[in-house]
Amino acid sequence: MPILQNIRNMAKANLTHWLNQRDTPETEIEAKIRELENGAVQTKNTLAHFVVSYKRMEKNILDLQASVDEHLARAEEAMRAGDETAARRELQAKFKAATRAESLMPVLESRRETYHELQESLVEIHAQLNLARTKMMDVRASEIYYESPSHSLNTVQAELSRPSAQDRQIDEELKSLQQKFSRSSSGK
């Protein structure tokens, strides 16, 4: 089933590295979110169809097992009545129903495993989707912060408070004068 393989691949994709890249544009994240949302819908639809098929097969097996019990009861009745031919027919029908039920059990088990894999894939897709949405909120929040007037004011204040080369030179000369002054006053 190529759809199942696509869903598994999407669920197993390591999006964390991709989402943590600093230079990831908002449009790429939005595209990845849409892809994950489509994958989630596709997985849910596949799960729904799969559940219907699984339940139908499970009911078929239960019906066959009930049929086995009915044929056995009829065979016992026929033997009590002394009708060996009818008992033989019922036992053949019982054997046929039991064989069919046994042949369907591995298929049912395989479908059960696939169902659980699909559920796990859906959980993983939702986790990746939540991660992508969180990253999108972070990107939007940082855009709002950097576009805000307070950020612009903070940037200007930071640049003004940063010492210039001239200020550093003045500080150095002031220190040397203080050292000269302290030596000359200690020498008196």
Separation, N- and C-terminal Cα atoms: 98 Å
Order of helices and strands: HHHHHH
The residue fraction in helices comes out at over 70%
Indicate the mean pLDDT. 80
Number of strands: 0
The secondary-structure class comes to mainly alpha
Number of helical runs? 6
Note the beta-strand portion.
under 5%
Please provide a written account of the structure:
This protein is mainly α and 188 residues long. The chain has one domain (2-147). It is 91% helix and 0% strand. It contains six helices and no strands. α1 packs across α3 (26-81) and α3 (26-81) runs antiparallel to α4. The protein is rod-shaped and about 135 Å long. The termini are far apart. The model has no long low-confidence stretch (mean pLDDT 80).
Topology:
Blueprint: H1 2-12, H2 15-20, H3 26-81, H4 84-147, H5 149-161, H6 165-186
Helix pairs in contact: 1-3, 1-4, 3-4
Provide a quick synopsis of the model.
This protein is mainly alpha-helical and 188 residues long.
Features:
188 residues, mainly alpha, 6 helices, 0% strand, rod-shaped
